[in-house]
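Chapter summary example.
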Amino acid sequence: MQEGKINVQTENIFPIIKKFLYSEHEIFLRELVSNAVDATQKLKTLASLGKYNGDMSDLTIEITLDKKKKTISVKDKGIGMTSEEVDKYINQIAFSSAEEFIKKFKAKSESEMNAIIGHFGLGFYSSFMVSKKVEIITKTYQTRGNTGAVRWECDGSPNYTMDESDKKERGTEVILHVSDDSKDYLEEHKLLEILKKYCKFLPVPIRFGNEKTWEKVEGEKDKDGNDKQVEVEKPRIINNIDPLWKKKPVGLTDEDYKKFYHELYPFSFDDPLFWIHLNVDYPFNLTGILYFPKVKKNLEVQKDKIQLYCNQVFVTDSVEGIVPDFLTLLHGLIDSPDIPLNVSRSYLQGDPNVKKISNHITKKVADKLETLFKDTRPDFEAKWDDIKVFIEYGIISQPEFYDRAKKFCLLKNVDGKYFTFEEYENIVKSSQKDKDGQLIYLYATNREEQYSFIQSVKDRGYDVLLMDGIIEAHFINTLEQKLEKTRFTRVDSDTVDKLIKKEDALPSKLNEDQQKSIKEMIEKQVDPKKYTVSFESLSEKEAPLLITQNEFMRRMKDMAALGGGGGYSFMGEMPENYNLVVNSNHPIVGRLLLEPDGGKQAETIKQIFDLSLLAQNLLKGKELADFIKRSTEKI
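The structure predicted for these 635 residues follows.
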């Protein structure tokens, strides 16, 4: 039997690993299973080269939990190790000195420890985070030389023992004697959760216990005449060794992609809208599938739906810096051995290879969207409401994406018709300009609430866009910077006759003194700090009073509410302010001057003012109840 100390230059290596890996200590299982997969893959490579001709019929890696003994074991049938290899790879830590490790590590944040461990080849030692003792029992695949089985044991200090073992079959078994402060890992559901998180798509079958299932009994029927089924217990294989993204896109069906989507997201009941299969082997390696999910109106943006893998090993679902920010709203996964995972995020974002991968993903997404638009425009339009948030976010957050997206980004009007930027400009350029020659794009954010304003604008022959997405305020701001001499204005931000140049403006039926008199009447009934009263010469068909809100102020408040208000975050704290436009040509307004009864004047103003509030969905609570009661009494 051999005894000794692990070759490190400080006895503090294990406490350091335990301390700094504590927040990520579940990775011990990922590291051990990954090592087992590597050993198995190496054996398969040797066999393919004709350097090993032993039994390869069953290479399943087995995870075993024994709650009574408080052990977890990971057993493979891979290449195994000789005693010399155990001494080299286990007893000598693969870096120049522990002092160097400590020095490098202390410059890192705690969250980066996982990556550091992988960088220095310390994956096996992560097992000491949860163990009071670790055993290795291994036998090499080799048949020449010192090929006896080896048993190694360590209690978490640098002291170890190494002796012969009676293990007969090739491969390695790592046995963890779980410490009392990590007893949570002795629960089957906990281990299963970790295995499914990190090892779900590893390329070698991984078995963890058994599971019960129902099987049909051939030729037998139950009492109801249905095929008879019996409950059986089968080995529980937790991984899919041949996931869809590793296959060539040619020959795969839509059903294949949808099935895999639901394998990734078992609690998602909607099918994805479409997907992009990434398959690159030069100048970098990148595979994966990105899905465009069906977006709901009450979307809460989640940026943790794209999973990052390295050679089918799950690494993280935080992919900022690798996937462009606007595409982190997609679902799916990417797998690349060329992404440097063992460095900080700031380094990652500056890495030229990562930048190339990020640019390639953006290009592939743009290519797919442009192809869908050109080849199947009706279908593309049918999906637009679900995919526009991705495209609009891309235009906002990534200026270079706009050059591609402007070919397929759509504007939708309130009648449900879709237009490219160029198409819409051609529709409105002859009729919707202000006095300075700027194009005015009229829009609504809610077809129902702004119906009266929409209808008033349409009655004049103008078109109205529907901009009801969750990031429209930011998107509109961006478009005004991109589109030449173009201004977006919501239909209720001002009267349309004031917004759009009109040659045949209506004269006012009220002179200045009459307007002044009516203004004084109205200001007695409304809050002058909240409502600014003005007069306009509108058609008699228009409402007597209209409430509008300044486009700039309202939009900045909307942006501030969403976040990123371009320096206008203070706008969210400012009180609401509205314009109260009096239609100087409406008969009711004119009759106010003829009404001698001040009480009736006030009653009329209150009624038409409440109607203007109602049109803007501003009449609520007691005021709404009083309005309904008052209106009912007049019937």
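To summarize the output: The longest helix spans residues 352-375.
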